[in-house]
Amino acid sequence: xxxxxxxxxxxxxxxxxxxxxxxxxxxxxxxxxxxxxxxxxxxxxxxxxxxxxxxxxxxxxxxxxxxxxxxxxxxxxxxxxxxxxxxxxxxxxxxxxxxxxxxxxxxxxxxxxxxxxxxxxxxxxxxxxxxxxxxxxxxxxxxxxxxxxxxxxxxxxxxxxxxxxxxxxxxxxxxxxxxxxxxxxxxxxxxxxxxxxxxxxxxxxxxxxxxxxxxxxxxxxxxxxxxxxxxxxxxxxxxxxxxxxxxxxxxxxxxxxxxxxxxxxxxxxxxxxxxxxx
Length: 278
Prior knowledge:
Elements: E1 2-6, H1 11-14, H2 19-26, E2 27-28, E3 36-42, E4 47-53, E5 59-60, E6 76-82, E7 87-91, E8 94-98, E9 103-106, E10 113-117, E11 126-132, E12 140-142, E13 150-152, E14 161-167, E15 178-184, E16 196-197, E17 201-208, E18 216-222, E19 225-231, E20 235-239, E21 246-249, E22 254-261, E23 270-271
């Protein structure tokens, strides 16, 4: 298992960052490595996110000294979405199948969590996000077949999309984690515009289901001083609470958003007038 630590940066710090410095600070280029657990620990609200890609044997997330606890979820909750081949998860001895797009919410103080693939040549790819938790909420498997997507956007503004809410008050209870799946319609490219900020919550994005030559231009920074990251398939980025949240790509794509912070109100965002963007 590998875990990299990223420390928080202020808008003033990144003002003069080079492209390489910006990518080193906010972009995670490799998450899904066969047979490995690849995690990133960001000090932005102490979120841990990454990929678990089991092949011939089950994998577990084992952290102790890094977090100062006896086991990974002693003081944390966990969200999971499978973006790969069929597999399963074993939670406290109970095994559940996990096909592509199935998810899981796993509550605080759960000790035994294992990830498996049905076929090592077509492994499951479990995207995992964990944040600190203060209360135990029930563990819930979230099947894609039971989620009714929220449809928004328009063809004329190039942002028609379906939003699947997984870890969300409409689906299950959580302490502070929110997590979901957004699919852009063919011909649409903006994941949100006009853009927004939410000072009360940070966010991470995993971009995937992209052709090899497709690239996402993920915009970040203060509204009056924007910067961008160029992101490829199955790469992720950290979006601090002070940053704008928006992106556009060269073709349609899918992304997983995950948030944590002061509340779990999905609509708690501050829209940025187009005239204020620079």
